[in-house]
């Protein structure tokens, strides 16, 4: 078979090791792999990664040393054109023209929505790999890139805690996650933060200020608040203003981590997840599966239909929220 692979949407650490696994597993089983650059847009532009001898096929050596490399050598994008009827038609034409029989997209919910639309017009097979730092997809315990993003955020919060402690300040640290509070909650718990503001829970400013007063009375010198960018209050800047207005007992400073969380070498757990899911996606295609995302639940590799991965908002674990409250004393 000729399998096309691409990365789409926001990049995530671990996309490269996932690509490596897909290429090595597919070649081991006698398939050919075409690397499509810049996601769905690359399919419309016939923009292929040139492998050995300048051919648009990926070879064993094309993916050497990718385990430790952040970002994606295939490049990524969000394509407006692909969402149009004309764009989808062109994508199908190009798939047929280049004799691509199956696709493995690595991306998040937007990527899988695109895959669903494509499958309504194309009879090839598509199995996706969850590549997003947000961990907002159903059908896998963790998405590729989440662990690295949390690691990066925790390192940043640990450093900020040092200066917060010296100056007896409160820091609001805004993390990514789009509409999900997963990165924020995991970061807050791992870095021993006092408060977390998530889209999944109500951010009650008077209650937070009251809690801060209690903590100050108990001798706390510094406070770290992790704010998910999608928090209903509107992010760290707005929450900072609200806290000050409500009589926050600490001097405050604010940091937005932003795209820092998307870069850097993937941590080992992301490399292993990426390798397992990439290989599993190839196996699933060989077995005739299509229209689903490869994921890992309780250590088991599973397929989940694309639509089920994004229709529902993935709730953050209640027990971790409760634990953070107990520990932030
Ligand atoms: O989906 C990954 C993500 O990093 C989100 O956490 C964030 O909201 C968004 O992408 C940022 O997108 P962009 O790179 O287009 O600014």
Arrangement of strands in the largest sheet:
2-1-3-4-9-10
Alpha-carbon distance between the two ends? 58 Å
Task: State Rg.
Answer: 22 Å
**Based on helices, strands and strand pairing, what is the structural class?**
alpha/beta
- For the secondary structure, the number of strands is 10
Percent in helix: 40-55%
Q: Which residues sit in consecutive blocks of at least 5 with pLDDT less than 50?
A: none
Overall 3D shape = elongated
Task: Give the ligands present.
Answer: 6-O-phosphono-beta-D-fructofuranose
Task: Give the mean pLDDT.
Answer: 97
Largest sheet: 6 strands, mixed
Strand content: 15-25%
Order of helices and strands: EHEHHEHEHEHEHEHEHEEHH
Tally of separate helices? 11
Features:
single chain; 329 residues; 11 helices; 10 strands; binds 6-O-phosphono-beta-D-fructofuranose
Give me the secondary-structure topology.
Elements: E1 2-7, H1 15-28, E2 32-35, H2 39-45, H3 85-97, E3 102-107, H4 109-119, E4 125-130, H5 146-167, E5 169-175, H6 182-190, E6 195-197, H7 205-217, E7 223-228, H8 236-245, E8 251-256, H9 268-286, E9 292-297, E10 300-305, H10 306-310, H11 318-327
Parallel strand pairs: 1-2, 1-3, 3-4, 4-9, 5-7, 5-8, 6-7
Antiparallel strand pairs: 9-10
Helix pairs in contact: 1-9, 5-6, 6-11
The structure holds 6-O-phosphono-beta-D-fructofuranose.
Task: Report on this structure.
Helix content is 40%, strand content 17%. The protein has helices at 15-28, 39-45, 85-97, 109-119, 146-167, 182-190, 205-217, 236-245, 268-286, 306-310, 318-327; strands spanning 2-7, 32-35, 102-107, 125-130, 169-175, 195-197, 223-228, 251-256, 292-297, 300-305. It is elongated. The site of 6-O-phosphono-beta-D-fructofuranose has 10 residues, from loops.
């Amino acid at each position: 078979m000729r399998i096309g692979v691409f990365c789409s949407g926001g990049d995530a650490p671990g996309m490269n090791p996932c690509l490596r696994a897909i290429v090595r597993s597919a070649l081991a089983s006698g398939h050919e792999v075409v690397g499509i650059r810049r996601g769905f847009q690359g399919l419309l532009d016939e923009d292929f990664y040139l492998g050995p001898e300048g051919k648009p096929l990926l070879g064993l050596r094309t993916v050497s040393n990718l385990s430790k490399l952040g970002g994606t050598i295939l490049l990524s994008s969000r394509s407006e054109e692909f969402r149009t009827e004309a764009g989808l038609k062109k994508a199908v034409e190009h798939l047929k023209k280049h004799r691509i029989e199956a696709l493995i997209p690595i991306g998040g919910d937007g990527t899988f929505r695109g895959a669903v639309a494509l499958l309504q017009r194309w009879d090839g097979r598509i199995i996706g790999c969850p590549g997003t730092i947000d961990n907002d997809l159903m059908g896998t315990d963790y998405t590729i890139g989440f662990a690295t993003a949390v690691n990066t955020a925790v390192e940043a919060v640990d450093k900020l805690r040092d200066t917060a402690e010296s100056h007896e300040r409160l820091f609001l640290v805004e993390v990514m996650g789009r509409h999900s509070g997963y990165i924020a909650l995991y970061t807050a718990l791992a870095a021993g933060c006092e408060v977390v503001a998530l889209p999944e829970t109500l951010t009650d400013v008077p209650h937070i200020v009251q809690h801060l007063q209690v903590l100050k009375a108990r001798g706390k010198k510094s406070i770290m608040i992790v704010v998910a960018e999608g928090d209903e209050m509107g992010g760290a800047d707005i929450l900072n203003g609200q806290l000050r207005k409500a009589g926050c007992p600490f001097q405050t400073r604010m940091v937005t981590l932003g795209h820092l969380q998307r870069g850097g070498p993937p941590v080992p757990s992301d490399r292993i997840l990426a390798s397992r899911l990439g290989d599993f996606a190839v196996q699933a295609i060989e077995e005739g599966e299509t229209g689903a995302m490869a994921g890992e639940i309780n250590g088991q590799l599973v397929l989940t239909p694309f639509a089920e991965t994004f229709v529902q908002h993935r709730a953050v674990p209640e027990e971790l929220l409760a634990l953070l409250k107990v520990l932030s004393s």
